TrEMBL record:
It comes from Hydrogenophaga pseudoflava (Pseudomonas carboxydoflava). This is Uncharacterized protein. It comes from the Bacteria.
Amino acid sequence: MASDEQVLLMSNQLQAFELKTLLLTPKVHPVTTAAAQAPVPVSPDGSLQPQVLYEASDDAGARYQLPRYEWNTVGGRHTSRLRLRTADDDPLGPLGWLNIELLAVHAVDARFAMRTLEHTATLRLGYEMPVVAAADPAPPTWEGQWENTDAATRGMTRLLIGRRADGGWFMHGFGKCHPSDCDWGETTAMPSGDALTGVYAFGFKVTTLTARRSGQTLVVDVLDDYTDADGRTDRLSNYVMARSVAAAPAQPLIWEALGPLNPLGGSMHRCTLPFHAQEDYDRIHQIITSPVHRARLEVVCKATIGQRTWQQWWLHDRPAVAPLQPDIDMVRISPAVLSTLRTQPLAVAAAGPRMPAIASLRADRASTATRALARGVRRPHHNPDLDEALSREETARVLRTLPRRVAIDKKGRPVLVRREVECTQSLACTFDPQADGYMLDAPRDPSQAHVLFKHDLVAEGQSVTFFQDSLVRDQVYYEPQEFRLARSDASPFLPSLVFAITDVATESEALSYRVRLAFQARPHLGQAFLLLARQRFGPAARLTALTPRSARLTLGVPTADGAPPALQERPDAVIRFDEGITDELSLDEAQFVRLAAAFQSPAGIGMQGWVTATISDGTQVDIPLVVSLKDNTGSVFDPQLLRPDPDGVPGHHVVTLRNRIESPVRVNGVHPQELGVWTDPATGVAQTVTVRPLELPPVAAVAPGQTLDLRLAVEPAAFPLLSVSPALDLDIQPDLARLMGQLTVTEAFTEATFEVQVSASPLFFGPGALTSLRVKFDDGPVVTLDAGTLVQTVSLRKPVVARILGLEPGYRYRLVAVDARGGERVHDGLAGVGHLQVTLPQE
């Protein structure tokens, strides 16, 4: 298998990016935060860290840095606020706001001219949630190990509360002493209403402890009653205790986006999150004040950096970089040389001569492999004095993944390319209500615990755990049933799978190439569990995948020799349960062919694996991952059109669904579902609204662009149904010839050609309609149709992917519709197979 070293795709504008970023943006390459010719920081390995000095691309004496963010304070007091609306605020505006103010701190180095790296920053809040059984009204009231939230306290430091075998309560307290805490010992405790009281008799004083729960904290009043002989004045102390971090069990982790961090001038930055419901305000109040939640703030920074790398995979078949920038050379290496370098080990003499200077592609005569490299390189000039030596390990790595085409500068180094990178900074986000009370307005009910209620739902012999927020009841989290290949929500609604076919050589009858693929999978719940969840939590429930404490991906990758898939740990995979799993890997020619065959098989499964996740109780679960073109997450139909059923029966409706994807879709079944509770205004009776199918769906699949009518019955019939999303069991029948053309970037073409007849209906043209339609094929030809020319035949070059997989050749094109006033409507990302009957995509 090819190396999984980092590989960057290149554009003619010298922008570089990883293949998997195409899954997150509809553009061919991401928009960077720096202009094409603007100076950038040069990062040797492509990473970005705060307060690290990076050399400027335009000045060796200048250094860029990303600032480190920290909480802003004035006079030792935080300037961030969680506040409610006052009489001076708009009465129709938000109920409250969370204002977070951070300070950008820069490193100082007098040796260099310092520059701040331009970047964007967004905030998100991460926190843990205690879990209790759904039947329990609240977590245990007092029991557990508690610690003083004030680490500098001179009074009580810890308090253990528990039950004895006879059911009675006890307290075990500790006080501040040096070098270790004083052990007060154990004393009997008695409950009284919402309080638990224990008494210590120390001889010179009697200490009474009264503990009450306040949200996720324990408030303890300590009354010291000194004897007359001691002479000191009695003292009442108040302590806020939180559950011991060491004793607290692992809890589910939740992330919430807060918004952008905006500069205010100088080094000050602010993010503002409005609240419109009291429950949301109370929830955030508990999260940032209770140590139980272990809240932390993450600052996600994105910026453009410069990097030099040999792993250059050019986006187009014939890059035009060299003519655009005269100081750049395009070095070409013959396929035979590449084959030799990748299959034979690097030969080095025993005496240990100087390593081959791959940085300038100059040959060291002691190495057979680099002698072949020298013969395969064609470049106009070379200065051997500018060569840079690499270690043996670095040389071997470069040779393993050396591409067929490399751009270098006049010093023989890889050309400087720009790429967008991300850096995350983390800040503790827990505030003491006593010391930091000025930051907070009081919640409506500070005693109400913020927990997750655990529900185990069972369907079809499987069990899935759901967690309901105790304060915001329509927010429900779940552990995914499995992960499936995602499908984009934007036109053309493709599966989140992309291939880069690079280093294509079609000399004589031979064909050689390399393949890089990336995919994104999202959490999936079957219709049975979705229906159960709606019944249990209500039709308005927001279902969100719960982030585990840790997770790792194991993937079965196709083998080249036909053996069972090879299981691989994927340490570089990005695993976010709320956003999905993204991974990128390399395949050789044989592996790619086997993967395509797997996608075409009856099961349609290209790759399988599993995510091993550590969940809230510390146990591990294995969640299946399926990369298939038949079963995806995401909608395959346009928003439905609803109308009354022609049979005239009250409560009968027809829903029209339109297939918006590139492949046929078969509807195997329609599930009954509940829409919630509705009160009939005529009778005042509350009834559960249900929807059920009136007939079986048709056996035939729905072709791309075609529609399907489903007849549904709503009970009670008087319910005013405005819209409905039917609960469907679907089966996608992937059109691989069309899909592979759309999912492949850096496409190359063979010299073989095929003909496509392009036609359009005369109804497109005429007064008040269009004047022309232009079809621009990726291969280069342009066809213009109008009222006088309704049919044209064009010759296209056969794509490499069609030759590799033995498919009917597909093609990609752009459609430009021109109206009588000269206005143009452009439709990008279109694809076809066979003759092209032009249609106008729906907007």
